[in-house]
Automatic annotation (TrEMBL):
<keyword id="KW-0143">Chaperone</keyword>
<protein>
    <recommendedName>
        <fullName>Heme chaperone HemW</fullName>
    </recommendedName>
</protein>
<keyword id="KW-0949">S-adenosyl-L-methionine</keyword>
<dbReference type="InterPro" id="IPR006638">
    <property type="entry name" value="Elp3/MiaA/NifB-like_rSAM"/>
</dbReference>
<keyword id="KW-0479">Metal-binding</keyword>
<dbReference type="GO" id="GO:0004109">
    <property type="term" value="F:coproporphyrinogen oxidase activity"/>
</dbReference>
<keyword id="KW-0408">Iron</keyword>
<feature type="domain" description="Radical SAM core">
    <location>
        <begin position="22"/>
        <end position="258"/>
    </location>
</feature>
<dbReference type="GO" id="GO:0051539">
    <property type="term" value="F:4 iron, 4 sulfur cluster binding"/>
</dbReference>
<keyword id="KW-0004">4Fe-4S</keyword>
<dbReference type="InterPro" id="IPR004559">
    <property type="entry name" value="HemW-like"/>
</dbReference>
<dbReference type="InterPro" id="IPR034505">
    <property type="entry name" value="Coproporphyrinogen-III_oxidase"/>
</dbReference>
<dbReference type="InterPro" id="IPR010723">
    <property type="entry name" value="HemN_C"/>
</dbReference>
<comment type="function">
    <text>Probably acts as a heme chaperone, transferring heme to an unknown acceptor. Binds one molecule of heme per monomer, possibly covalently. Binds 1 [4Fe-4S] cluster. The cluster is coordinated with 3 cysteines and an exchangeable S-adenosyl-L-methionine.</text>
</comment>
<dbReference type="GO" id="GO:0046872">
    <property type="term" value="F:metal ion binding"/>
</dbReference>
<dbReference type="Pfam" id="PF04055">
    <property type="entry name" value="Radical_SAM"/>
</dbReference>
<keyword id="KW-0963">Cytoplasm</keyword>
Amino acid sequence: MSRARAFSSEVDTGSRQENASTKESEAFGVYVHWPFCLSKCPYCDFNSHVRHAAIDEARFAAAFAREIATTAARAGGREVTSIFLGGGTPSLMQPSTVGAVLDAIGKHWTVAGDVEVTLEANPTSVEATRFAGYRAAGVNRVSLGVQALDDASLKALGRMHSAREALDAVAIARRSFERYSFDLIYARPDQTPAMWADELRHAIDEAAEHLSLYQLTIEEGTPFFGLHQAGKLKTPDEALSRALYDITQETCDKLGLPAYEISNHARRGAECRHNLVYWRGEEYAGVGPGAHGRLDIDGVRHATATEKRPEAWLMRVETNGDGIVTDDLLNSEERADEFLLMGLRLAEGIDPERYKALSGRSLDPKRITLLREEGAITVDATGRLRVTSSGFPVLDAVVADLAA
């Protein structure tokens, strides 16, 4: 029996608070945020921090355990179906720290026997040497931040690994874990459709079951934003970006990794179960600096967020038991809009009846008809609503139209 299957629980498995008619599964996820990186990538606007002094992992592990206990006291009676250690760079943690976090989750919640436990990792040789330790700690899926398969692009993206090192790490992941995935960024400066098609085919040869493929976006507050504003960083125009997107969909479809979400591709049955928790509007706990959560307490959906600054979060947890700085109660309209925004990212689409159960009103049939006529959505015989391949590039507009 793996460590992940052996997690113990000291919490009774009480009934779920949300009405069964408003959800599609019994999934419950726990997200744990490790906020530290060796360096800050110039395109990244995530909550990540560089520290030149050694991190006191034992102190952070104790704080994670305490915040887990406090969260479970508020939202007990759940069975954890997925755990995701994200960041930052979680593969900078020692395996013993990961094990301590997983043990704390197992102490305070029931953990499903087939729980999915994902850890994000940089594909450097140093971090790859820890993979066996992570597997022993209970991790059974790893997500590698490869980002590109050529050295010039990796350097431009501020990555600290080479293409060869990344592929070597993928090979180690293949030997260490039953399930693994990696990320690539496309629509990079000077990238042509032919270059991307070749790189993508190479990636699919290595990917086995899952790829996350993101178009490069220029986020305010990042170094790339300043360079872009100054005209020193040129990104593909709208037409080229669309061509690169179309190549992504066509190539992945042809080679057996169709999109199950707008930026995520997998062989059938290999979807990331934790991310499906987000996109399907299920409950999840957020633990660690800058983590977000969605919890149903006494029949009300709470949107939580913790202190972003690692040391401030640490002191807050040690003093108060958690690092929560925001705990908003979502009304029915907010819940329904969030469900629509997240659910329409999925190829499986949404059940409009669930939207109605959440919001108290139906989607406007006239708007649905218009969007169908424009080819942006389809509605199947069961009434399930899906965004089409031509609708995905303008998803924001589709969601805004339906939510109006």
